[in-house]
Amino acid sequence: MRGPGERVTAYREGGWAPREGAPPPLGRAHAPRFAVLMALFGTAVAAAGVAGGNREPAPAPPRAESQETAPAPAATPSDANAPPPRTLVDSGDGGSDLGVAEGFRDEMTDLGFELPKRSVEAIDFELIDPEGMHHKLSAYRGSIVFLNFWATWCVPCRTEMPAMQAVHDILLAEGTPFRMVAINMQEAPAAVRAFVDELGLSFDILIDETGKTGATYAARTLPISYVIGKDGAILARIIGIREWADPVYVDLFQRLAAI
């Protein structure tokens, strides 16, 4: 995994390619989705310079998504003639190679995930948990990582946490190499600890005290989640809440982890 600030232009170059015709997540503006995503990643690239040591002010706090759970996008008449989704890796010769995720491209797109056009390696970070212990993203290498950004004041975040806990419990019991990691945005450890205790969460909860990690990952709207492969490459991201305990998502994570 890259260190903070290293080769961050991959975010700009990789970009994201949602399925043509897919509706925007609930609660977002009705601007063209691709333009919104490119704007978000322009912000992410600039913010990565902050993570690399530039003394710029922390970004404004992110806003919460709609409380409703957005359903998986349904097929529309325009989908029949739509070109295939752009791939995670662009070989530059007109071909494509998604690597371990090759067989999951269409499935993940249909479930509402957004796939980068080219391979994007997750930028490493080191954050504390509510008890003050340090955790690095690179330490999770070898497992599928579900990386979620959230806040205690975000009602949709609270809504999806029980489903995230359920996925964690199911895959942990099976011994699946899968890690649920939820990053709180700039709140006091005591407040985060109280929230965790109230909901009975047992997966890894980290705190982004400065907001730099959230800025690097374009967490301008909460919740936002990334799926990171066992090799440290970002496979996809998704904005808004989902019913993560639904068997369709559990099965997807199991199969990704099995490769």
Report what the structure shows.
Helices cover 31% and strands 19% of the residues. With 259 residues, it is α/β, with parallel strands linked by helices. The chain has a single domain (9-258), classed as 3-Layer(aba) Sandwich (Glutaredoxin).
Instruction: State the low-pLDDT regions, or none.
Output: 4-14, 16-59, 66-99
**What overall form do the CA principal axes indicate?**
globular
Secondary-structure-based class equals: alpha/beta
Gap between N and C termini, in Å?
19 Å
CATH architecture: 3-Layer(aba) Sandwich
Tell how many strands the DSSP assignment holds.
Answer: 12
Please state how the strands of the largest beta sheet are arranged side by side: 4-12-11-7-8-9
Tally of separate domains = 1
Radius of gyration: 17 Å
Q: H/E series, N to C? A: HEHEHEEEEEHEHEHEEEH
Q: Summarize model confidence as the mean pLDDT.
A: 74
In short:
The protein is of the alpha/beta class and 259 residues long. It is 31% helix and 19% strand.
What is the fold's blueprint, element by element?
Layout: H1 9-14, E1 16-17, H2 33-51, E2 63-64, H3 105-110, E3 115-116, E4 120-121, E5 126-128, E6 134-136, E7 144-150, H4 155-174, E8 178-185, H5 189-199, E9 204-208, H6 212-216, E10 221-222, E11 224-228, E12 233-239, H7 247-258
Parallel strand pairs: 2-10, 7-8, 8-9
Antiparallel strand pairs: 1-3, 4-12, 5-6, 7-11, 11-12
